[in-house]
Amino acid sequence: MTFKTSLTRRALVCAVLASASVWAQAQSIVMSSTTSTEQSGLFAHLLPAFKKASGLDVKVVALGTGQALDMARRGDADVVFVHDQAAEEKFVADGFGIKRLPVMYNDFVLIGPKADPAATKGKDIVAALAKLSAGNAAFVSRGDKSGTHAAELRFWKTANLTDKKGSGYKECGCGMGPALNIAASTGAYVLADRATWLNFKNRADLAILVEGDNRLFNQYGVMVVNPAKHAHVKQADAQKFVDWITSAAGQGVIADYKIGGEQLFFPNAGK
């Protein structure tokens, strides 16, 4: 083999490797999503089924909904999967998302010590918050602009207690799992999505105290990031995820995800 031939072959190998790298990158999309979809275990169940159907990998960055939307605004995601409908609709109205589609729902629950020293147990979330405020009960707020945090703030506002949450109210600036861990270790109350609670192992003396209020409804939506804002967005591949998760096949996979026989999310695409 001549020196020139060796160089030619090396150049060919480098070109093939570079092409393979580009192809591999093209076979994945980035999704910014809420922590509840990750920490509930849903994505570990859902994404392998999507890859089998599409051949695409999904790289998930799990953040609070507000941060997930900010990430997409910067062009650092191809698709967004979150749960704050008002914020999602603004994201689309501002031109950052192409279209918002509903995917699934579950509900929020108020978690607290089984002994329930603030006597919150029942169905009315607003009445429960009033009792927490009056008793200055320990309450862990995520304080991270997540969908859960946004819902919590709506409930305080409905209760006319936005500035009267009590001296026991503390913001952790953290995800749902860490917030639950803090509540478990300190005997505090916390608002959680049911799915993350069901997948949470470190429950200590915590239990669901308030559930069933219609105001606790928790809707999830999905959006492709608009390539008109960021030309590098992989619109076609992101749309494949949106089309699949809102299809009968994707909706079926969501419905099949259960813990201890209990369904965590309820598909409602197209409704």
Automatic annotation (TrEMBL):
Residue intervals passing through the bilayer: none
Keywords associated with the record: Signal
Entry annotated with the keyword Signal: yes
Domain PBP: 23-248
Signal in keyword set: yes
InterPro entries in UniProt: ABC-Tungstate_binding, PBP_domain
Signal peptide: 1-26
Top-rank taxon, per record: Bacteria
Matches recorded under PANTHER family: EXTRACELLULAR TUNGSTATE BINDING PROTEIN
Protein name: Tungsten ABC transporter substrate-binding protein
Source species: Limnohabitans planktonicus II-D5
